[in-house]
Every structure is written in C-alpha cells, then in structure tokens.
Design the sequence.
C-alpha cells in the first residue's frame, strides 16, 4: 500500500467513513469505521493531513487528531458539497471522497479549531438561545389561545406575563383555559430563571478575562456579546480588517452579479446568530436608544432606532488584532 498522506473523514454519530490518498492524490484506502476502531486506526497512521466537515463533534476530533501528531483541517459543508461526484448518490463513502478532494484544494478556506474552553462557554450560549426561543414560543402560544376567547393583552411579553395571575381567576374564561394558564405560568417562570442563570454563568466566565474587558470597552458591547465573540472567534488575526469580520458574520448583501453588472440583494445574515443576538431584544432596544445619535447603524437592512446587530461598528472601523472589534 502506498504511503497515506491525506485522509478525508465523513463524521456521523455511530460510524465514520474515511477515504485516504497518497502523495499524488490517488485514492488508496476507503473504509467505514465504528468510532472506537477509527481512533485505533488513526493512532497507527504516520502524521498526515485529516480533512473534516465542520459539523457536530468535528472540533473534538480535530483536537484529538492534533494531539496525536496529525494536521486537522475543518471545512464548511457548503465548500465540500460541489466536490461530490454524484449529486444523486449521496452516501458516507462518497462524502468522505468529496472531503478528501476538497481538503487538497490550494485555495480552500478552513475553519479554525475551537478550544475546549470556547466550546464550553458556547454551550451556555446555545442553551440560553434555546430557552429564549422556547419562552417566545410559549408566550405566542398563550397569546393565540387567549385570543380565541376574546382576551388580548397587547404585543408586549411583559404585559402578558404580568396579566397571567389575574387571568387564572378570570370567570370570563372557561375553567379548562384557566387551568391551562395556571400550568403555563410556572413553566414560563422556570424558563425566565433558566435564562437568567445562563446569563450569570456567562458573565462570571468572562469577568476576569482581559480580552473580554477590552471588548466591553467598546460602546454598546456588554458581557454577553463579549463572551459570544470570544467563544466563536478562535484567532482575531484571521481577519484582515473589520469588513472581513462583518462578512464572516453575514452582514453583507446577497449577490447575483453577472456580465459586469452588480446586483446586490438583502443582508444575508448567514453568520452565527450567537454573536449578533447575544443580548435580549429589550437590552438591544435600550442600547440603541442610548447610542442611536452617536453610532448610527449604516447597514441597509437596519432601520434607525432598531440596531440589533454589529453593522455600524464592524463595517466602519479598521480591524485590530488586540481588541476584537465588534458591536453587539
């Protein structure tokens, strides 16, 4: 067997498909492993390049491979997809071969590997985001059900939450609906407590972090946004300037240009929503009212007075590797 220098890996929950190539790029080995057998096989290999899609558990395997002398390279799935030979035949082996082909491209862009500390902090952000979405869904569900019986307490979530105790004893509502409100109210309180607990944990995590202190010195950036930036940005030097960071966040228009004619659409918002939505809508509105006259957001998708992103700061100031230039 020729010496293996590059390996394409397709990760899954229980099986891992690999496609290995020699120095010339010729495929010399293809196999589907279980998780434990893949680890045993990778340990016996000489140092080589491992290509992986940046999906679930990819950062864990990248750290593990690096600790055993290999060179892991993570790629976005959208960059790997065009290299699959057959669009109609998608399986683990074909995906591993596509990863192998993609990782050998000289102009491929790779994803920085996150540390354990970054992923641990990011886990709190993900849970907070999930509980916030669950809270919003519960409030909307309650508002819609109460509307079926002629009860309307406005669009504000706070107004509806404060009205729930009185609605539990409102004789105008059927008994079953009052029981439903009584069941939903403590569930809503538990979600509020869980979200508040996440915020306390996140803020305590960055309290003594020097980089976080530099980020929070920027007008309009709080502890949650600073923690989200530190958890998602592995190395600020990967960005040449603030415009590159804005593009990484998805704060650029969609393009459909051809024939020398530029056609720009709406802001794509394809970046990680953790950094753009780290603070609550109420907090974003409060910050926007405070700084709307001094730091007006210049992005086409944002209306004055409704700044909920990092457009204004990231697109108008140069990038500096020391404080991570963001605005949340």
Sequence:
């Amino acid at each position: 067997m020729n010496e293996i220098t590059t390996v394409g890996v397709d990760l899954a929950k229980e099986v891992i498909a690999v496609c290995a190539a020699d120095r010339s790029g010729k495929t010399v080995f293809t196999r589907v492993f279980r998780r434990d057998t893949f680890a045993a096989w990778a340990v016996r290999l000489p140092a080589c390049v491992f290509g992986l899609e940046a999906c679930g558990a990819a950062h864990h395997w990248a750290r593990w491979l690096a600790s055993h002398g290999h060179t892991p390279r993570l790629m976005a799935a959208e960059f790997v997809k065009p290299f699959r030979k057959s669009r109609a035949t998608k399986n683990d082996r074909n995906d591993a071969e596509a990863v192998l082909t993609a990782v050998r491209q000289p102009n491929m862009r790779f994803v920085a590997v996150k540390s354990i500390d970054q992923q641990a902090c990011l886990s709190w952000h993900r849970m907070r985001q999930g509980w916030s979405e669950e809270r919003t869904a519960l409030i909307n569900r309650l508002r819609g059900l109460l509307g079926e019986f002629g009860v309307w307490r406005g669009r504000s979530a706070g107004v509806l939450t404060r009205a729930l105790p009185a609605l539990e004893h409102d004789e105008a509502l059927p008994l079953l609906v009052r029981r439903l409100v009584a069941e939903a109210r403590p569930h809503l309180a538990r979600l509020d407590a869980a979200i508040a607990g996440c915020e306390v944990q996140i803020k305590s995590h960055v309290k003594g972090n020097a980089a976080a202190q530099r980020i929070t010195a920027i007008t309009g950036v709080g502890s949650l946004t600073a923690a989200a930036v530190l958890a998602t940005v592995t190395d600020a030097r990967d960005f040449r300037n603030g415009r590159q960071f804005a593009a990484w966040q998805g704060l650029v228009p969609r393009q459909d240009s051809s024939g020398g004619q530029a056609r720009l659409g709406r802001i794509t918002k394809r970046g990680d929503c953790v950094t753009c939505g780290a603070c609550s809508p109420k907090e974003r509105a409060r910050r926007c009212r405070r700084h709307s006259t001094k730091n007006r957001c210049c992005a086409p998708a944002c209306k004055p007075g409704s700044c909920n992103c990092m457009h204004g700061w990231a697109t108008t100031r140069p990038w500096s590797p020391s404080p991570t230039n963001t605005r949340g």
